[in-house]
Amino acid sequence: MSNTPETTVVVAKKPAMAHKSIVNESREIERAVTLIDLGARLQVLESETTLSYERLLRLYKEVAGRSPSKGQLPFSTDWFLTWQENIHSSLFLNIYEYLSKSSAGDDIDMLIKAYRLYSEQMVATEVEPLLSFTRAWRLVKFVDAHMLTMTTCSQCHGHYVTEPYENSRYFVCGLCNPPARAGKGKNAGGLRLH
Questions:
Q1: CA-to-CA distance for 66 and 141, rounded, in angstroms?
Q2: What pLDDT digit, counting tens, does each position of 73-107 carry?
Q3: Angle at 49 between CA 46 and CA 54, to 5 degrees
Q4: Which residues contact 8 (CB under 8 A, 6 or more apart)?
Q5: Residues 6+ apart with CB under 8 A from 167
Q6: In 29, 46, 92, 152, which residue has its Cα 20 to 30 A from 53's Cα atom?
Q7: What does the alpha-carbon distance between residue 163 and residue 143 come to, in Å, rounded to a whole number?
Q8: Is this prediction's pTM over 0.85?
Q9: Which residues is 149 bridged to in the sheet?
Q10: Residue burial 105-127, b: 16+ Cβ < 10 Å; e: rest
Q11: Residue 191 CA to chain centroid, in angstroms?
Q12: Please, are residues 56 and 42 in contact by the beta-carbon 8 Å criterion?
């Protein structure tokens, strides 16, 4: 037997630290780089990633080689309803809705895939892409907020971007009933009607 008193050593536990996953951060950076490559504005990156503004700003400058555009994002639904813009918006939104229904993934991942497919169609048909990634993102937000919707054309039965109160029974799309000067411009890469 020993004459020394027993000492109890108490080991204090370290407080639980916020767990930061390097893998998740890497995915966020990869997503941000993809969005920058597609032409997304900084506000879109802020909305669709968890990276800080300062980090996104540095990343944007590194990837794009320039500072991001300043100013507010477009907030009018009118742009999506004019003739050529409506055709481009409708093509994109049909692709996006098909992908959203047929495959799993985050909304932003579906948006990226849909925008890439839209861009491929523009290259294949030699038509100038009118829909930027930021406008495509805004279009999806407008549809989610019920500010825009898809309406079926009563003649060709295609689905087109319209205002929510459009009467589908009498709706005729811009391809079935184009405006008088539609397709007659000399812009290279514009839609042409024969």
A1: 27
A2: 778 899 999 999 999 999 999 999 999 999 888 89
A3: 50
A4: none
A5: none
A6: 92
A7: 9
A8: no
A9: 162
A10: eeebebbbbbbebbbeebeeeeb
A11: 23
A12: yes
Largest distance between two CA atoms of the chain: 108
Closest CA to 114 of 125, 102, 126: 102
Does the pLDDT of residue 147 top 70, yes or no? yes
Angle of helix 22-37 versus helix 107-125 axis, rounded to 10: 30
Under DSSP, the state recorded for 147 is S
Q: How far apart are CA 101 and CA 16, in angstroms?
A: 40
Structure tokens at 136: 């495509």
What are the phi and psi torsion angles at 130 (to 5°)? -85, -25
Secondary structure letter of residue 183 according to DSSP: T
3-state SS, residue 160: strand
Q: Beta-carbon neighbour count of residue 88 at 10 Å?
A: 23
DSSP E strands, the chain:
149-152, 159-162
Residue found by looking up tokens 């944007």 in the block: 60
Nearest to 95 by CA among 130, 132, 121: 121
Tokens for 176, please give them. Answer: 């079935």
Q: What is the mean pLDDT of the chain?
A: 86
Q: Return the domain boundaries, the chain.
A: 22-64, 78-162
Calpha distance 135→40 (Å, rounded):
9
